[in-house]
Amino acid sequence: MDEIALTLKPIESAQLEHTLAHFDQRRMDFGLLSRLKYGAEKYLPEMRLIEHRYPEIAAYLKFLEQQLEVLSSHIGGCAEAAEALHRQQVELSAVGVRFTYPKVLDVGSHVETTLVLFPQQIRILMIMKLVRVEPQNDGSYAVSGEFVCVHEEDREALIKHVHRRQIEELRRDSAS
């Protein structure tokens, strides 16, 4: 199980093609902080080399990176928005998610999905196809969705997040 923030916006069948065609632009407007973190990870080997050869320059670059993260979170409202979102327990993988939802949703329909992964507060925008919706005893619905449109950088961040969670669980299990 994983704790994330999740929001859904149903996509009408007639709007699906338009939504998919404009997905990249919508994503660019949405996930500035995620893109910055991905870029920093991409150049990690170079940063290690700079740290070794020029520690003062590396310290300054890290300072600038932190300042960019603060700015990007405030520009996009990420920090406040992420804290305000309802967190919930989900079963998360690189290809889909299972969660509870208060309203019935149609199997086979598509939803624009926002995930916020904690504690990094990485925001991911994707299109998800609902593959299972089952009523629960408490009036909510167990929903399973398959990610059908995810940018490669976001998929990479999702895979790393899931991998980190699995390692944490293994460590907890081996400690007990």
Structure description:
The chain is α+β, with helices and mostly antiparallel strands and 176 residues long. The protein has a single domain, classed as predicted glycosyltransferase like domains (Thrombin, subunit H, Beta Barrel). 49% of the residues lie in helices and 30% in strands. It contains seven helices and six strands; from the N terminus they run E-H-H-H-H-H-H-E-E-E-E-E-H. Strands 1-2-3-6-5-4 form a six-stranded antiparallel β-barrel. A hairpin with a 3-residue loop joins strand 2 (87-92) and strand 3. Helix 3 packs antiparallel against helix 5 (55-75) and helix 4 (44-53) crosses helix 5 (55-75). The protein is globular, with a radius of gyration of 18 Å. The mean pLDDT is 86.
List its traits.
single chain, Thrombin, subunit H, 49% helix, 6-stranded antiparallel beta barrel, 176 residues, 30% strand, alpha+beta, globular
Give a quick rundown of the structure.
The protein has 176 residues and is an alpha+beta fold. It has 7 helices and 6 strands; from the N terminus they run βααααααβββββα.
At CATH level 3, the topology is Thrombin, subunit H
List unreliable stretches of 5+ residues: none
Number of helices: 7
How many angstroms separate the termini? 18 Å
Which structural class best describes the helix and strand composition? Answer: alpha+beta
Strand segment tally: 6
